[in-house]
Amino acid sequence: MIFVLWGEDKSCKNTLALSFPKPIVDMEFDVGGFQRSCRNLPHLPIKDWYTQGLIKLEQYAMPFQIGKLDPVANIIRPSKIVIGMKELFYQFTAKYIEHLKDPAIQTIFIDTGTLLYEITCTGYLQEKQEIQLMPDGSVKPKENLRVSLLPIEYREPYIRMRGFIYQAKAHGKHLVLTHHAADEYGMVRQSDGKIGEGKTGKRVLHGWGQLGDGADVVGHTYWDKVTGKPYFKVELAEVKELEDMVIEEPTFDKINAVIKMIRGEE
User: Fold this and answer.
1) Which of 83, 171, 232, 256 could link 250 by a cystine bridge, Cβ 3.0 to 4.6 Å?
2) What is the 8-class DSSP label of residue 218?
3) Residue 266 near residue 257, CB atoms below 8 Å
4) What is the number of structural domains in the chain?
5) Which of the 8 DSSP states describes residue 69?
6) Structural domain range at position 10
7) What is the CATH number of the domain that holds 207?
8) Lowest-pLDDT choice from 27-41, 54-68, 167-181, 221-235
9) Confidence band for 185, pLDDT divided at 50, 70 and 90
């Protein structure tokens, strides 16, 4: 199954993801997420699963985007040229394909889908920038360096993101993508009474927004301070009866049991 989990920081997104069928490979861009998940819900033996080799952790650190080091002056000279993001994208993709082909791996967990989408877009921008560069790394004469993708060019990152999802389906893998939360923007009434764009007051999934067509379940994790427990609210699901359900202390087994019950498989 393809699961998309989003929520605020430390709302047990990773903890839920790591309850999926094992062996799991945790492909971590959000470095430190695995350690946090080990602490959040001690009744899930995440550390033991890791020690037993049931969870494999891979970390993909984001490269610095602060310019180039001048070895003579020993200073960093600011630059808008993207460095290392294309390489990180292809490094990740090569390992992802390797895991798809590994029959021993049941679940691939990407932490986070928000950062994967950012790397996919920025890596593609780097490819576009490199067309503008001379062999010595300087910008070609009469060229204005690209600093963002054109709207029509996002088609390629969309295709690449869909590839991750549909290849997991084709290879029979569980795929879990966690996403950060962000403010929703829309048309709202301003302080002067006029209608304009601004924050609606809602929090939404941050990252690639076209996940609903490929995912089996999309939902929101949150922590209830009164009960001191995590919850998972289903927002979209292939099994429509699952939508709007709230599951206390969610795990894959709990959610899967509900899905099987609805389908009449148990």
Assistant:
1) 232
2) E
3) yes
4) 1
5) E
6) 2-220
7) 3.40.50
8) 27-41
9) confident
